[in-house]
Every structure is written in C-alpha cells, then in structure tokens.
Amino acid sequence: MNTFILKLIALTTMIVDHYGAIFHEDIMIYRVIGRLAFPIYCFLLVEGFFNTRDFKSYAKRLFIFGLISEIFFDYAFYGRLYFGHQNIFFTLFIGLMAMYFLENKDGKYKISRNMVLFLAIILSTFLFVDYAFMGIIYILAFYYYREYPSKNKFLRLGIIMLIVNLAFTSLVQQFSLLALPILYFYNGKLGPKNKPLQLSFYIAYPLHLLLFYLIKISF
Length: 219
What we know:
Number of domains: 1
Mean pLDDT: 93
C-alpha cells in the first residue's frame, strides 16, 4: 500500500462522500464510505510534512488550493458564497503549520507547544474549517504517534479517534476507524510520482465540486 494508492482511496471516497452529501443526503452509505477519506488525508499530510524537500511550497500549495476551491465548495454545498464553513484544504493547512511550529527545529520561534495547540484549535474553530478542531486533533494524533511501532500506534490512534468521534460528532463518524486497517498496510513507498500527477490530486478537489454544482443547477 503506497502513497499513490492511499491518495486514490482518499480522493475516491471523498468524492463519493460529497456526491452523497450534495445529491442524496438521505442515503447514509455514501457518508459511511466517505468517512475513510479524512483520516487517510491526515496520515498523508503528516508523511508529506516529514518527507517534503520544500516545506514552503507544500504549505503554499495547500493554502492556494484552499482559496481556489472555496468558491466551488460554497456553491456546490450551499448554492451561494457562504462563510460559515471552509473547505478541507484550510484544515490541512492549519494542521501543517501546527506541526511546523511544534517541530521548531532550530528553536527560532519563541512559542510553547501548548500555545501552538491552543492557536491551532482556536483558528480551526473560529474560521469554521471542515472538521474544525476535531480535524486538528486527528492530524496531531497522527503526528505524535508517527514513530510508534505499528500495532501500538494504530491502537492508540483508534482509541483517540473513537473518543473524539463520540464526544464531538455524529455516530457515522465512527466509520472513520475503518481507515486505520488500510493505513496499517502502508509500505512507506511513494508509487508513481511526477509533477502533473501530483497537481492532478489537488486539481481534482475544486474540479469535482464544480462538476457537482453544474449538475445540481441543471436538474
């Protein structure tokens, strides 16, 4: 199970989830399938953070695609510009920046780890990003347990996700735990990789939202 396959699974299940949310709110199976996407994206974000050769480009790419995608996100889900819910790129961006300041490799930032966590949670909550502070908890759980032995790591991640899901969201989110067995078989390899392929995974996000919006207004 390499990075490329994980990206395909995350992208596919996310599109299924969005299709269900936009066109078939009453059919729960779409949302169940879609619960796999976010934990996989959190895992990939953490792996990307530790393996990227150019952190600034990585962060910039997430932020720019967040801006590009927002209008498509708003119109696909709400039919208008809506500032009460921001797309997942912003969640991932905040999580990425939180990891950056938590690492603080050169010690050049005079900010405590507790303050980083507090600011990340506050930002994600008050900017109304997708998954809000729960998304940040997911990301940082994958970050903190990255170096643990696999069985120990995934057991701890499962417990955290279970508790967070029960405390802060609906029962359907518990199906997100099904992403953990998939991630368990990650082999640390990239799989096919080039710039166009890399960008295609980013472009697919605003593109599928645009397509869903056009279908929505056509019928």
